[in-house]
Amino acid sequence: MNAGTVGLSADTEQEAIVKEAEAFVRNRIRPCVQLFQAEKGIPGSLIRELADHGYLAASLPREYGGLGLDPVYYGLFTEAFGKASPAVRSLLTVHTSLVSETLLRFCSPEQKSLWLPRLTSGQWIGAFALSEPDIGSDAKNIRTQWREEEGHYVLNGRKKWITYGDLADVFVVLAANNGKSTAFLVERTFDGVATRRVEGLMAGGDTYLAEIDLTEVKVPKGHVIGRMNGGFEYVVSTALDHGRYSIAWAGLAIAQEALDAMVTYSRSREQFGQRLSQFQLIRGMIGDAVTKVHAARALCLRAGELRRDRSPDAAIETTIAKYFTSKMAVEVVNDALQVHGANGITDQYPVAKLYREAKVLEIIEGSSQIQQEMISHYGLREYFKRGSKR
Ligand SMILES: Cc1cc2nc3c(=O)[nH]c(=O)nc-3n(C[C@H](O)[C@H](O)[C@H](O)COP(=O)(O)OP(=O)(O)OC[C@H]3O[C@@H](n4cnc5c(N)ncnc54)[C@H](O)[C@@H]3O)c2cc1C
Fold it and tell me: Which of 105, 143, 263, 334 holds its CA 20 to 30 A away from the CA of 53?
């Protein structure tokens, strides 16, 4: 990896990193995606390779072992992985965006210098444990509890749907006390931590999705992330903002992949003595898909630029991008599958898997309905014309 190359402009250097990542995806990931599904997970050797290339910390600063990509280039980087393998992209979403970027933002200098190098080097894989069997969207009301004892905190509860939870070495765990939540860094080796795979999934069967039981887990005082009782307002909202940005690009990646498949298939398959691409109704679907993908790309890039420039609008534009891209990915993949006819439902073509994976994006990092709520709050405030009777 030439991340440290001297004498190149920042953009040229970042572009080179993204190009190398695209080549890595082409050579090391695309040929193996069927294997990930068959083996129900990406292998440790690939995670090692990702770490060695710096890909587990692409958005983190160099001082902590990251590649220093700005949000725009980090988005393009995420897209490259998301097009080939949602499983690998999911690892980047949780390990880098939700966990490492959140620790970077909220941890003390001592915590950062101890923990971040372990995460960037892949010595630790991180997962983000907020959701519970009975609590999803209503994340302020988690039931996992903490209490204080001499020298440590004690956690009890159960987390569910934790991506890479069955593989991770450390978890950012949200736990409550008196209605206020706090974020803790919990190591797998702590007594009372047990994980088990969630089975029978429509998608994500290769992402080590797990339930986590926390039984009288003693967590050292130095493992609190950010301020006590600031778990939801600070840590969760920031982590989900990073996660949403990653998912926005994941939606774009799936839709672009589906569009490529749709166009390619329509230009080779013949019916009624003509290529499918010559039928107006098929061309209508292609025209819509191209338009949606271009619109999604524009939203993702805009969110990336606002994040890079630390604009106060960055978070809402990220939410808008996540909402739009995940929704349009479902629509585009639906049409792409339609264009493939019966072939579309087989695993010999990519669209069936894309169809299943796209739907997940409308649920995670805040469901589409929760995004609509957030966007409508913004809209009702922003577009109200005071004094107007219109
Ligand atoms: C593949 C996958 C990976 C995941 N990874 C993680 C992870 O790594 N870490 C983690 O903590 N969690 C993870 N989750 C959990 C995810 O964050 C939750 O599924 C999500 O927050 C939605 O919660 P829920 O599934 O409990 O749905 P619920 O909250 O029960 O909602 C059910 C339905 O009701 C709608 N709804 C809920 N409230 C409202 C409202 N106020 N207004 C309108 N509609 C509403 C929702 O939009 C949804 O359609 C993952 C989930 C999946 C499927």
Answer: 105
The continuous run of DSSP H or E covering 138 comes out as none
Sign of CA dihedral 195, 121, 84, 250: positive
Tokens of 352: 């069936």
130 lines ligand 1 (CB under 6 A): yes
- Pairing mode, if any, of strands 126-129 and 170-177? parallel
Distance CA 255, CA 325 (A): 8
* Ligand 1 neighbourhood includes 131 CB (under 6 angstroms): yes
Q: What percentage of the chain has pLDDT greater than the value 90?
A: 96
pLDDT digits (tens, 9 = 90+) for 197-221: 999 999 999 999 999 999 999 999 9
Q: Is the pLDDT of residue 5 over 60?
A: no
Q: What is the pLDDT of residues 297-341, one digit of tens each?
A: 999 999 999 999 999 999 999 999 999 999 999 999 999 999 999
The neighbour count for residue 192, using CB atoms within 10 Å, is: 15
Task: Tell me the average pLDDT of the chain.
Answer: 96
346 touches ligand 1 (CB under 6 Å): no
Res. 280 pLDDT band, cuts 50 70 90: very high
Q: What percent of the chain has pLDDT over 70?
A: 97
Domains of the chain, each with CATH number or no CATH: 10-125 (1.10.540.10), 127-228 (2.40.110.10), 233-382 (1.20.140.10)
Ligand 1 centre from 378 Cα, in Å? 21
Q: What's the start-to-end Cα distance of the chain, in Å?
A: 58
288 C-alpha to center of ligand 1: Å?
29
Report the amino acid identity of residue 87.
Answer: A
Ligand 1 probe mutation, 161, 170, 330, 360, most atoms within 8 A of CB:
161
Question: Parallel, antiparallel, or unpaired: how do β-strands 193-197 and 210-220 relate?
Answer: antiparallel
Beta carbon of 164 within 6 Å of any ligand 1 atom: no
13 is catalytic: no
> CA-to-CA distance for 290 and 255, rounded, in angstroms?
9
Which among 263, 350, 255, 336 is positioned nearest to 296, based on CA atoms? 255
The tally of CA atoms less than 13 A away on the side-chain side of residue 129 is 39
Q: What pLDDT is recorded for position 385?
A: 87
* Ligand 1 close to Cβ of residue 94 (< 6 A): yes
Ligand 1 centroid – CA 371 distance (Å): 11
